[in-house]
Write a structure and sequence with these properties.
heterodimer; A: mainly alpha; two-stranded antiparallel sheet; B: mainly alpha; five-stranded mixed β-sheet; globular
């Protein structure tokens, strides 16, 4: 029991420490949020390649409705990129998030399932936040991934006796987290815009 | 009677899927992708030389490894193109035909692979996968047929597509051996697993990993040392020439060019122990990023269509569901597809740039199977809510798929002509019209690696390659010079012709200059 608490504490430390990667960042890279101006530009770009085509076909494939939905979806999915999750809550946190997706399939409690779905959908708010809301967006995302990761690791460490396989998985996750940050490589977040 | 009737329907559906795959891969293949990219031109030229003279471009007779640009290409695809050129002539179609054919047949092989993969080990150990393997097999074939990732590389002269075809044959024969062990099946499996090593460089790592899996299976499940010895000896024998070549400077050239660790060669050994794993792990993770798989791909214009990536977005929820169910149901059965997914990343993560859609191509197989089994799983689920969600996803899937086809077949030849060498062919053919009047053809090296394109498209134009600052020497009759470059010239030149790209802006690619005085 004490060992499990120590392990969870270590995991939390790793996840919190990864926030230091963002100390010099001004905004997210690659994540621009939703912009109707961008949609219009993209539409212009794609329509001009459809020369000598029926207007119905052009409008079927290139219209603001489908492009807007597609852009919102892509911006939302980008918030679930593995590299962003690692940047926010470390590799250990990413493993925890993956475990949370694994265990939710077998979760019997309805409240936890609803909470999980809410957390998964919540990042869509960030897509509609204005460009200057970097701090709020980062906080919201970090909190969501932190909670999911904690759920995943708690479920993973739930059995009374932790098997050798589970210990190996834990060790490998810690080792990879260590290697990920230890080398003399660029130590800013991949999604960091300075 | 019912079984025969079901079988007929299955084969009919499979036939329709293969017909669709064939059409998607062969339609206008000579013109889309627009022009040959540099490796295709090199493959085509070497294949043509083999057909015409039995030697490669450097005069080596029937080489086992083709020097090309110094990276030493693997031979099988080039010889396949030689065979194709004997039928179709020295054309873009001939260069791409083996890849398109292999891509189409891979779909049939995937159907067979899935059927072999989910055969119940014991009659009383049936599960969702074994009970529905026919549906999963057909769905896998269909998903691969319309896959943007597989389609993109089936339509270009990419060695990786042919290598994947052989690799699939190796997997199928191995699974056949698993289900009914026979010596000749095992030997064929080894043969087909080794052939990709002679087709595409990444398999120099993937195949040994797969052979290890085979040996692991023979050790844990069968404990038959004679089979293990047979696998080791036959794989060593078949790959002997490749192994010896790999230990030469020429054999290591390709890895030296693309190594992910090239920037860290000169750091102390102790630091390398930290840096090398860190680089590998960072590269490894990029191959599973949402941005790479679903949003924008690897950024290379030849590897995906603008605004699309390797997979459709609608495949994402099915990928997650499929992964979960596959691991849950197959975890005591070797998890071959997970192993295949991981070994597909391994060679790609050792190279740069990372991620790289072409080097990661073998992963299209396990990913397609995960998506397919999830589709079948969801379709067989009952419940109004699930059916409603499924209808919405099907509508979105149909729209996104049609949008992809529209983008690929209508937009792509225009938007990505610079990523391929479309303009080189036009340029060289136009030079052909002027060469009698202007016998001194001067080509600016800033036009890129145009040398190989001249070799492929023309037998009698041998230009002089110069830098942008070149000035005609006095001894040369200026009236007979044709200077081809993509900018202006400094001295008294007259522009007589321009080759434009087929993009929206009709940007100039090459300008033809003559000297008036």
């Amino acid at each position: 029991m004490i060992t499990k608490k120590v392990l969870l504490l270590l995991i939390i430390c790793f996840e919190v420490l990864s926030q230091f990667l963002w100390r010099s960042c001004q905004n997210f890279k690659f994540i621009s949020g939703f912009s109707s101006y961008d949609i219009s530009l993209k539409l212009e770009d794609t329509i001009h390649n459809d020369t000598n085509m029926s207007f119905i076909i052009i409008r079927f494939f290139h219209n603001k409705i489908t492009l807007t939905l597609s852009e919102i979806l892509k911006q939302y999915l980008l918030l679930w990129d593995f590299r962003l999750i690692i940047d926010l809550v470390s590799f250990i946190g990413l493993v925890g998030v993956i475990f949370s997706f694994w265990y939710i399939f077998a979760e019997k409690k309805k409240t936890i399932r609803i909470a999980f779905i809410t957390l998964v959908i919540a990042p869509v708010i960030i897509v509609f936040l204005p460009g200057g809301a970097f701090a709020a967006s980062k906080l919201l995302l970090s909190a969501i991934f932190f909670v999911l990761s904690l759920y995943g690791w708690i479920r993973f460490l739930q059995p009374k006796k932790i098997s050798t396989t589970r210990l190996i998985v834990l060790l490998v996750a810690f080792l990879i987290s260590f290697f990920y940050y230890s080398a003399n490589l660029d130590t800013t977040a991949y999604f960091c815009l300075k | 009677m019912n079984k025969i009737h079901e079988l007929k329907i299955t084969y009919f559906i499979l036939f329709l899927i293969l017909l669709l795959a064939c059409f998607l891969r062969f339609y206008d293949i000579a013109n889309n992708p627009p022009g040959l990219y540099i490796d295709e031109a090199s493959i085509g030229y070497n294949a043509y030389k083999i057909v015409a003279t039995g030697r490669d471009e450097y005069g080596v007779e029937h080489p086992l490894f083709f020097k090309a640009f110094g990276e030493y290409k693997m031979p099988l695809y080039i010889y396949a193109v030689s065979a194709s050129m004997k039928v179709f002539g020295k054309t873009e179609f001939a260069i791409r035909f083996p890849s398109a054919l292999a891509g189409t047949l891979t779909i049939f092989l995937l159907y067979l692979l899935v059927k072999q993969l989910f055969i119940p080990v014991k009659k009383d150990k049936k599960n969702f996968l074994t009970n529905n393997r026919e549906y999963i097999a057909l769905t896998s074939a269909f998903i691969l047929a319309i896959s943007p990732w597989h389609l993109q590389f089936s339509r270009g002269g990419f060695e990786a597509t042919l290598a994947l075809f052989f690799f699939m044959l190796g997997l199928i024969t191995f699974l056949k051996f698993k289900n009914s062990p026979r010596v000749h099946t095992l030997l064929f499996s080894v043969l087909f697993l080794v052939l990709p090593m002679y087709t595409y460089s990444a398999y120099r790592i993937i195949t040994p990993c797969m052979i290890l899996y085979v040996m692991g299976y023979l050790f844990w499940k069968k404990k038959q040392w004679n089979y293990i010895l047979m696998v080791v000896l036959s794989s060593l024998l078949l790959s002997f020439s490749l192994i010896t070549f790999t230990f030469t400077n020429a054999g290591q050239e390709r890895f030296a060019q693309t190594s992910a660790f090239a920037d860290y060669k000169n750091i102390p050994v102790i630091e390398k122990l930290l840096v090398y794993p860190a680089v590998f792990i960072k590269n490894f993770i990029t191959f599973f990023s949402i941005q790479f798989l679903f949003i924008s791909g690897d950024g290379f214009g030849r590897h995906q269509v603008p605004y699309f990536a390797l997979l459709y977005i609608w495949e994402l929820p099915f990928l997650i569901i499929g992964l979960y169910h596959y691991i849950k149901l197959e975890r005591h059965n070797g998890l071959l597809l997970i192993y295949l997914l991981l070994i597909s990343v391994f060679p790609a993560a050792l190279t740069q740039p990372s991620p790289h859609a072409l080097r990661f191509l073998p992963a299209v197989i396990p990913i397609t199977v995960f998506v397919s089994l999830a589709i079948v799983y969801v379709c067989l689920k009952k419940g109004l809510l699930i059916r409603a969600i499924l209808v919405i996803i099907v509508v979105c899937a149909c729209y996104e798929t049609l949008l992809y086809f529209h983008s690929y077949y209508v937009h792509y030849p225009k938007t990505n002509s610079l990523d391929w060498g479309a303009a080189y062919k036009d340029t060289i053919q136009r030079i052909g019209l002027y060469k009698n009047k202007y016998p001194y053809i001067i080509v600016d090296t800033a036009l890129g690696n145009s040398d190989i394109f001249f070799k492929f498209y023309s037998d009698d134009i041998h230009p002089l390659y110069v830098s942008s600052t070149w000035v005609p020497p006095h001894e040369l009759d200026k009236r007979k010079i044709l200077f081809v470059r993509n900018g202006a010239i400094k001295s008294d030149g007259k522009l007589i012709d321009t080759i434009y790209l087929k993009n929206l802006n009709k940007d100039p690619f090459a300008k033809f200059w003559i000297y008036d005085n």
